[in-house]
């Protein structure tokens, strides 16, 4: 924030209005999204003892390897995290795009050029047409090898809009994924987590899709 203020004073083109927009973007895109993502991931994992147990066993088997290698090798853990992000993508609004010159035709419907169109990540990532009849259920196994046909697996990856899509995909994705995996694996490795979920996990939202009302308790695991 101090650097943004200094830049505002040093450069005439960096107006106060732009300063405010940049500050909001930094806090919103860099802080709120990450906090909301971690909340939903830990809630989904902690509400299912079998998932938490399997993750902890997988993490324990890699405790003597390098951190970077360990994170990449945690297949089930990564699937559990990905499944929570599928059900609770932090962006709850449609991601707007403008149709190209000449317009476009999608599933039998025509859109004139210049039309603003969008797709809601929450609705898409809970679609039974893409993720199966249990699309509304938390099931990490759907992301594991052999859990789906190759065609279905490719479709699921294609329709995941957690990080946006195309040329406007979130530029902070690599850093955010690193933070999420480090935090989640570290907490599951060191604590047994109990959680009370809100009565309605899927709550109405527009801009940010945030899970609220979850109460967690962390019990330290004694090192052996």
UniProtKB/TrEMBL annotation:
Cofactor: heme
Entry superkingdom: Eukaryota
Keyword Heme: yes
Pfam families, per the entry: p450
Keywords of this entry: Heme, Iron, Metal-binding, Monooxygenase, Oxidoreductase
InterPro entries, A to Z: Cyt_P450, Cyt_P450_CS, Cyt_P450_E_grp-I, Cyt_P450_sf, Cytochrome_P450_monoxygenase
PROSITE patterns referenced in this protein's UniProt entry, alphabetically: CYTOCHROME_P450
Chain positions recorded as heme binding sites: 170
Iron as UniProt keyword: yes
Gene3D superfamilies hit by this protein: Cytochrome P450
Gene Ontology molecular function: heme binding; iron ion binding; monooxygenase activity; oxidoreductase activity, acting on paired donors, with incorporation or reduction of molecular oxygen
Family membership noted in the UniProt record: Belongs to the cytochrome P450 family.
PANTHER family: CYTOCHROME P450, P450, PUTATIVE (EUROFUNG)-RELATED
Stated name of the protein: Cytochrome P450
Source organism (scientific name): Ophiocordyceps australis
